[in-house]
Design brief:
The structure is a single chain. This protein has one domain: Roll (PH-domain like), CATH 2.30.29. It is α+β, with helices and mostly antiparallel strands and 111 residues long. A seven-stranded mixed beta sheet has the order 4-5-6-3-2-1-7. Helix content is 25%, strand content 32%. It is globular, with a radius of gyration of 13 Å.
Length: 111
């Protein structure tokens, strides 16, 4: 199943993206960006870094649930996952990014 990046615009005029798996579940969400071009660069960064396991920082939320952050090689955060029920499901989310991101289409929902 093919994934897709959805580009969104918030009420305050800033931009962000979500990467969705083929089942339409959000795998990773970006930060807010001031400019549309920054979203494009963020999507390229996901595609460039998703194959490198060192770019995934596995974390645990205050409530004990695991989640991950995808970081660029320079240490900057590219996006953050949802919280998962277990480490196993979190690792499935990481695999989902690796499968979905490289060929994912970009759907601009800001228009």
């Amino acid at each position: 199943m093919a994934g897709k990046f959805e580009v969104l615009k918030s009420k305050n005029g800033k931009f962000r993206f979500n990467l969705k798996a083929g089942n339409n579940q959000i795998i990773i969400s970006s930060q807010l960006y001031e400019k549309r071009i920054s979203v494009t660069n963020g999507i390229k960064s996901v595609k460039n870094h998703c194959g490198d396991d060192k770019c995934f920082e596995r974390k645990v939320a205050k409530n004990g649930k695991p989640y991950f952050v995808l970081k660029a090689k320079n240490g900057k955060t590219i996006g953050k996952s949802q919280q998962y029920a277990s480490n196993s499901t979190m690792n499935k989310g990481i695999r989902a990014i690796r499968n979905a991101a490289p060929d994912a289409e970009v759907v601009d929902l800001t228009k």
